[in-house]
Input
Amino acid sequence: MSKTDTFRPLASIRPHKLREGVFARAINGNRLTLAVVDLEPNSSVPEHHHENEQLGFILQGSMTFTIGGEARVLHAGDTYEIPSNVPHDAIAGSDGCTAVDVFAPVRADWEKLERPEPFPPNWPR
Output
């Protein structure tokens, strides 16, 4: 990592387009990824699983998160834990959602995704 990458405003990070209406601004370390994920109102992430362990919390808005078959409506301040290879999906609420996710190991698979030029994130406003 170069010194110019040590400190960056969130708005300067080119997002990864995870799917229509879902963008992740990721910071990769040597062993983990920290991502701020914006979901547009009522957007969804279909059921999937990955090797990466995932921890996170809702920063603003809400989403219905199903993890290992258990569904919960999560709001700002709620946390979640997804062990490696456990199926999960998410549907953003009517106001959208911003979540903070940490993945270990690094989400190297995201490097193949479309990356639009930076645009203002939903948080902070």
Q: What stands out?
A: The chain has one domain: 14-110. The beta strands are 16-19, 22-28, 33-39, 44-48, 53-67, 70-75, 79-82, 88-104. The first strand starts at residue 16 and ends at 19.
